[in-house]
Amino acid sequence: MIIVLLPAFNEEESMPTLMPKLKEALDAMKEDYRIIVCNDGSSDNTIRLLEDCSAKMPLEEIRHKINRGLGETSRDLFERAAEICSDDDVIIRLDCDDTHEPKFIPKLVEKLRSGYDVVIASRFAPGGGQVGVSAYRAFISRCANVFMKCFFPIKGLKEYSCGFRAYRGSTIKMAIAFYGNNFIQLKGLGFTCTLEKLVKLKLIGARFGEEAFVLRYDQKQSSSKMVSSVTTLGYIVMTILYHWPWGGWRSSVPKDFVEWRMKRVC
Ligand SMILES: Nc1nc2c(ncn2[C@@H]2O[C@H](COP(=O)(O)OP(=O)(O)OP(=O)(O)O)[C@@H](O)[C@H]2O)c(=O)[nH]1
Ligand SMILES: [Mg+2]
């Protein structure tokens, strides 16, 4: 099965375009699928649009009455996916702002099944790119990715900040069983959770791959929800937590994980 996770906050402009494309891409794959949307306290028409969609496709809604932010939304989506998926299922997460084209899903799934635990849709892989991104924003995004590569090196990865990814079901189940509520620990720090998931999965031995994709920023209609100052603060906090010489994530998690696995095996 393929489980698609969508975080949605005031996406009434994009949902009517995105959802039919998503359905078309998933129907063509001839596999069971389920879409889980977390509607995070939207005050626009997102709720009604989701009700319409659920009549046409297998769609489940997690509803936050108030806006809780991307961290808590991701936690709820991934925990729900872990609850219902089996080890060989594929979990896909993409944005609802119509900048992530569902037509890339089959390639992500194929690559994941060729022997990876996480495959990232990458603007920086050969053949990838971005359309409609201002030179300033492209520069900031490149710098952020270079920063992440320096402080959280993961072999074979150039794209750290794109949330469009495929995950192996068993990997997410294991991460949630091991980390519990701390799989996404920096919940209040905006979009930091997108990087945190990668780093936490790396620490428990996940294998990473990238697949080229083109970010369609020219199609974005809703306003950006990313607060750069909070996200930047989040990256700084995470860098300290990861590299902290006395019990930082970098050294303590692998040790704790080995002990945890030993106990489960015995
Ligand atoms: N649930 C929830 N989703 C959010 C929140 N903020 C953003 N999102 C969703 O997370 C996804 C990413 O948000 P975007 O605003 O596209 O952020 P981005 O892709 O990092 O940057 P831009 O596309 O430039 O804005 C979208 O699907 C949003 O609807 C939030 O507070 N709660
Ligand atoms: Mg976006």
Quick take:
By secondary structure, the chain is α/β, with parallel strands linked by helices. The chain has helices spanning 15-28, 46-54, 69-84, 105-113, 135-151, 169-179, 192-203, 228-243, 249-265; strands at residues 2-8, 33-40, 59-64, 90-93, 118-122, 129-131, 165-168, 208-212, 214-216.
Give the distinct bound molecules: guanosine-5'-triphosphate, magnesium ion
For the largest beta sheet, what order do the strands appear in spatially?
A: 3-2-1-4-7-5-8
- Uncertain segments: none
Strand content: 15-25%
Shape: globular
What descriptors fit this protein?
266 residues; alpha/beta; Spore Coat Polysaccharide Biosynthesis Protein SpsA, Chain A; two-stranded parallel sheet; globular; binds guanosine-5'-triphosphate; binds magnesium ion
Question: Layout of SSEs?
Answer:
Layout: E1 2-8, H1 15-28, E2 33-40, H2 46-54, E3 59-64, H3 69-84, E4 90-93, H4 105-113, E5 118-122, E6 129-131, H5 135-151, E7 165-168, H6 169-179, H7 192-203, E8 208-212, E9 214-216, H8 228-243, H9 249-265
Parallel strand pairs: 1-2, 1-4, 2-3, 5-8, 6-9
Antiparallel strand pairs: 4-7, 5-7
